[in-house]
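User: These chains co-purify. Model them together.
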Amino acid sequence: MIQATINQKPVTVPEGTSILQAARQVQVKIPTLCHHPDLPPTAACGICIVRIEGTKKMLRACCTPIENGMKIITHDPEIVEVRRTVLELILSNHPNDCLKCGRNQSCELQNLAADFGIREELFTKFIGGIPKDDSTNAFVIEPDKCIHCGRCIEICQEIQGVWALSFLGRGFNSRFAPAAGQKVGDSPCVVCGQCASHCPTGAIFEKDDTLKVWQELQNPDTFCVVQIAPVVRVAIGEAFGMPPGTNATGKLYTVLRRLGFNAVFDTSFAADVTINEEATEFVERFVNGKGPLPLITSCCPSWVIYLEKQVPDMVDYFSSCKSPQQISGLLTKTYYAEKMGIDPSKIVVVSIMPCTSKKTELTRTEEMFASGYQDVDYSLTTRELARMIKQTGKDFVNLPDSEPDHMLGDYTGAGVIFGTTGGVMEAALRSAYSFITGEKLGALEFEDIRGLKGVKELSVEIAGRRVNVAVAHGLGNVMSVLNRVREARAKGEPSPYDFIEVMACPGGCAGGGGQPYGVTDDIRAKRAQGLYQDDRDKQFRLSHENPYVQKLYAEFLGEPLSHKAHELLHTHYVKRMPG
Amino acid sequence: MAALTGNDFDAIKAKVQGGAKNWIKVGMSTCGIAAGAGKTYRVLEDELSKQGHPVSLLTCGCLGMCYAEPLVEVCIEGLPRVVYCRVSEECAREIVRGHVMGRKLLQDYILAMHYEEAFS
Amino acid sequence: MEAVSLERAESIVAKWKNKKGNLIMILHDVQDAFGYIPEHVARRISRLLDIPLARIYEVLTFYHYFKLNQPGKYKIAVCMGTACYLKGSPEILEELKTILHVEEGATTSDGLFYIECVRCLGCCGLAPVMAVNGTIYGNLKKGDVVDIISRYSKEG
Amino acid sequence: MSEKTVLLQDTTAGSTTGTSDFFGVFKAALRESDLADNVRLVRVADMGVYNQGVVMTILPENITYANVEAHDIKRIIGVTLKHGNPVKDLLYQPKFRQMRLVLKNCGRLDPGSIDDYIAADGYRALLKAVEQKTPDEVIAELKASGLRGRGGGGYSTGLKWQFTREAAGELKYVICNADEGDPGAYMDRSVLEGNPHSVIEGMLLAGYAIGSSQGFFYIRAEYPLAIERVQKALDQARERGLLGNHILGSDFSMDIEIRLGAGAFVCGEETALIASIEGKRGTPVPRPPYPSVRGLWGMPTCINNVETLANVAPILLHGADWFAGIGTQTSKGTKVFALTGKVRNSGLVEVPMGTTLREIVFDIGGGIASGRAFKAVQTGGPSGGVIPEKYLDTPVDYDNLQKLGSIMGSGGMIVMDECDCMVDIAKFYIKFCVDESCGKCAPCRIGGYQILNILEGITQGRGTLQDLDRLILIARAMKMGSLCGLGQTAANPVISTLAYFEDEYREHIVNRRCPARKCRALLEFNIIRHLCKKCGLCARACPEKAITGDREHGYSIDTEKCIHCGVCFDVCKFSAVERI
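Assistant: Joint model of the four components:
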C-alpha cells in the first residue's frame, strides 16, 4: 500500500493507483477532459495537472501513479490558471456551435467551459475546416470538433482491434481519420459506435433519424410499429436520472404508445425465435454433424462486418440465423400483418436499439427485405429515443407501466438476457440442452459466462458429451479465441470450442455504442444485473417455452429450420477481401 | 577474420604508427564535402599520381573548423605538419607541387590553431 | 508497373521481416526505391507484416521524411536550421519559389523540381545552404539560386 | 643551425593584406641577418588568435608572440631564431584553449579504419572492462566521474546505467540517441562521421555494465554519411569480434544495429524515440515508468546521447578522477558546442565545463564576423533561451545556463548580432516547435500555434500590449501543462527574449518599429537622393510599381503603395536605398 498526502490529508491506496483515483479518497474530483475510465490514460489534454507540494513542476494526475510519501496539491491559484488557459486554448480550436451540436448538454468540454466560467474568447479562433465524413449510415464525423483526446482511436484500435480510425499528420494539423484518404465507410470500420460513445464532444455522433420517425408517426396512412431491444429497458432510465440497471420496460411500452406507435413489440420476443433457430442449428451441427463447428453467433451486426472483413476464412462457422431486430421486423410485416389484416406496405417498423450498427443492418443483404418490404424501416439508438421522449415533455420516471402488444411482444428470461455478454450463449444452451436431452436443465444460470471478463469459457455436459463454449465481447478479445480455432484446424484437431458467442461492444449490448453516455464497467454490470433480474422474475425462462413462440411456429413457420423458417429467418455472409 | 584478443592491440598500434611517413589527410565529413572536399580529394589524387610522389592520401573526419573547410593536413618528413584551409582546386595542386614536391609551405592557406592536438 | 513495384516491396519486406523494429526501416527502403510510398505498396506491406494499414499511415504521416506523392526529379532541400535562418535562408526559399513558381512541399508542373524545407543539413559553417538531390550548395546568396537551378533545368 | 618556420598573421585586420608589409619587412630583416635560407616565413590564413595585432608562431619551438611591432623583429631574430630562446615581453599566453576529449580523434583518424581507432588506444577501455572490471565497478567509475547526459537532460549517466542494471527484465537494450534534431547543432553528426568507433565502444561499455546484449543506433535519416560510416564501423567491429559473441574472448556478447529516424524532432525524447523504433508514431508517453525500467518492447532500456557515449571510453581508460578533475563543481568534463550564427569562425568547439560564454564566442569563435555589435547568444536550441551580453562572463554549465533562463541542451550555440530581431528569433523557434509538436497534448499543440500567431502579428505591426500578457499566459500553460520536454520548454525562447528584450517587443508594438530592421513589414524604405545614381534598377524591380521617377530627375518611393518587400534595397548597387 502507498501512503501519501493529498491537500495535506493522508491517503492510503494500493500501488499503481493514479493521483486522480487517489484524490477521490479525499473527496476531490480533479477536473479531466481526455480521461475515460474505460481507457488507459492518454495524457493528452493537460487539464488534470496537480503539483507536488513545494515544487514548481506539475504532473498529470490521470497517468501519474502516486508514490510513497508524495505530497500532492490538487489546486492552487496557479494550477487553476494553467487549467483555465489550457481550456481556453482548446476552446480556441473548437467551434462555438454548441446550440446545434449533437452533444449539447452532454458535452464534456462544454461542462468544463461552464465550470470555468469562460465568458469570452481570449485567443484567436482557428478552426481547421476539415469536411464532415458521413459515409456510414450510422454516424457522422465532424473533425473540427475533435479535441485530440485520442479516446476514439484508443477504443477503435486497442479495445476493439478494428483500426478504422487513426491519428494522421502531426502537430496542429494532426487529425483523426481512416488511413490512406479513405472515408470511414470504406475503412475497416464495423460501425460499433464505440468511438461515438467515448467521444467527449460532438466530433463523432450518431446519425439522427428521429425527424423521419416523427414524420412517419404523423402520417395517417402508416401503421407504426416499434420494437425495443432487450437492454434498452435497463439503460434508458439513465437519461432521466434513474439509476443504471433500473428496469423501465413497462414505462417504455407506455411512452412508445403515447408517442403514437400503433403497436409496441419487444425484440426480446424475436430473440426467443432466434434461439429456437440457433439452438436447433447448433444441435444439427453438434449432434448430427450437419455443418462445421464451432457455431458462431451472428446477431451482432458489427461482429458480422468484422468477421466478413477481417477473418473471412471463418465465415462458414456463422449461424445463418438473422438477428432479433430483423426477425421482429420480418414477422411484423408477414405473420402479424397477415393475422391482423394490415397491408404490410403500410407498416413502418422502428427499432429501438442500444447500437449504431443496427442502422446499417437494415439493408445489409437482400434477405433483410424477406417480407417483400424493408423488414425494419428505422433503427433508433437508446439516445435518440431519449431525445424523442424529452421533446414530448413526458415525465418518463413517473409514467405508469403497461404491457406490450401480444403476438410479438411477450418474451422469456432467455430472450431478455441477449442484451448482455454471455446472454445469447446462456439462452442457447438452455434450449439446446432441452432439444438434445428432451429434459429441462436443473440450474439455468451459467455463472462462468456472465460478467465482464474479456473471454469467458465454459464446458458443460449434455447427454454424455462435453460442449465447450467461449464468449468474447469487445472485438479486441476475439482474435485470441479465433486463433485457437485456427490452430486446431491447421493441425487437423477438433475445434477447442463447439459454440462461440461474440458481441462487438465491451459488455455486449449493455455497453452498446448507442447507449446513454458515460458508460463504465460499473454501469455495464448494473445494466446486466437489471437483465438478469428480469430473467429471474420471468415465468418462462427458456425461449422454446415462450407460448407465443410456440404459437408462431404452429401457425406460421412450422418448426425451427423448416423450409419457411430458412427462407424468412436465415441469411448468408460474404467473404470480403481485406483492403 | 579472426576475432581480436587483447594481445593484438599493441601489434595493430605498432603497425599503424609505423605506417606512412609522408601523408596527406583530407577532411571528408558532411561539412567538408559540402564545401568541396570531394573535389579537393580527386585533384590531390590526380596531381599525386602525375607527380609520382609516394605520399599516402588519407581521409579523416571533421576537425570542427567548419568555417575553413575544406581542410587538408599535410605531413612531409622534414617539414612542419600543417593544416591547409579552404583548399580549392588550385590550392590542392599547389600543395602537391609546392609543398610535397617543392618542400615549401604555401602562403596564406595555413590554419594555425593554438591548441596542440590538431598538430600533434 | 504495380506488379513490379509490389515485387520489389515484397523483397524489401522479406529482408526485414524477422527483425524487430522493422516498419520504419522498410518504409525507408521503399522510399529509397520509389521516391515515395505508393498506396498500393503500403497496403501490401500491411498485409505482409500483418499490421493494420492505419498503423502504417499513422507512421507515414507523422514523420516528415516520408512522402505520399512522387516528388520531382530534383529535390531541393532548403536548410532552415537556425544558422541558415539567421543568414538568410528565408530569402533563398522565397527566391526559389519565385523562380520555380511553386510552393514548398510541392513539385513544379514539369515534374522537375520539388522544394522542401529541412531542419539543419549539418553544415552550419556554410550557412545558408541548400541541397539538390543531396549535393550541397553553401554560402548562398540570393543571386546564386538562378544559376544553380538553370544548371539542372538544362539537364532536364 | 636547424631550420625554423615562422607563421605570421596580422590578426587585427582579419585578412592577409595587412601582413604583406610586415612580411616584407621581416623577409628583409632575415636576409640582413643571413637567415633567409634557414627560416621559412609563411603567412597563414588563421592563427586562431583575434585582435592581437601581428601574431607569429615560431616552430619547432612553438613559441607564439602577439602584438609584434616592426621594431621587435630584430630581437626576435636575435633571441629566438638564432638561439631558440623566447622574447619574454612579446610572449602570447593564449587566454583560452579548447580541450578535446570527445573530438580528440575527429579529423585525425580515418573513420573507415578500425585499426586507426585501435592504434589511438581505441577499444582499450572495453578490454580493460571485460578483463578487469565487474559491471558494477564500471557503473561505479561512471558515477564517480560525474558524467551527465549530453543530450540536454543532464541526468547522471552512471545512475541511469545503475537503474537499468537493477531493473528486472530478461532482455535489456542500449540505445544511442543520434537523432540530433536541434536546428543548428551537429556535434553528434561530426562524431559519428569522424570517429564512429568511439561511440560504439561507449555502447558496448554500456551494454556490459547494464547486462544488455542488443544495442540500437537511432540515427537521423538526414545524415546519410553518418549512417554509412557507422554501418561500416559496425561491420568492421563485428568482423574483428568486437561485436557478437564472446567479445574479446570474454563472456560478454552484444550486437548493435542501426535504426533510422524519419524527420521528427520529438523523437529525441526518450519515450518517443522508443515508440519510433517500435514502428509507431513518435509521440511521448507519460513517465514513469522510465525507459530504464520499461523501455523498448517493455524491457529495461538505457538511452544515451552520442556525445555522452563518446565520453565513456576515455573515462574508463583514464579513470573517474581524471575526468572529475575537469569542469565545475556540478558539471564535469568537457562540452562540445556547435558555434554558429554571426560568429567569425563557425564550427565545433570543445571546452571544459565552466568556460565562459565570452571565451567561447570571442576567443575561440573570433567574435562577430561582420564587425557589428554582439547582441545575444542562444543556447539549447528550440528548448533554450537567449543570453544577452551582460551575462557573457557566466561560466557555462548545466546549472548556470538554467539560471539564465536557457539550457545546456545538446550544444547548439548561435551567436546573434544587432541585425537580428529578437521577436523574429522567438518566432523562428516557436515555428520550429509548432512544426515539430507531435500534436498529442493540447498546451503544446494549440499553445505553440497561438504564440506563433501572436508573434506573427507583432512582427507584422498588428501587435497590442495585451499580446504580451497572452504570451506569458500561454508560455506558462505550455511549461506547466505539457506532457513532454518539447512542450514544456517550447516557450523558452519566447520567455527569455521577453525577459531580456522586452523593449524590443514594445518597440514593435507601440512604435511599429523593428530596431534590428529585420521585420520587413515594419520598415519604411527611402531613396537617399545624394547617393542615388538614377539608374532606375529599383523602379524596374519594384513589384508594386511604387517607385516613380525617371533617369533625369531621380526616383522616389510612394509609401502608400509600398508593400515593404525590400526588393529595392536588395537590388540597389549604390546603397542608396535606406531602411528606416
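The mean pLDDT of chain D is 91.
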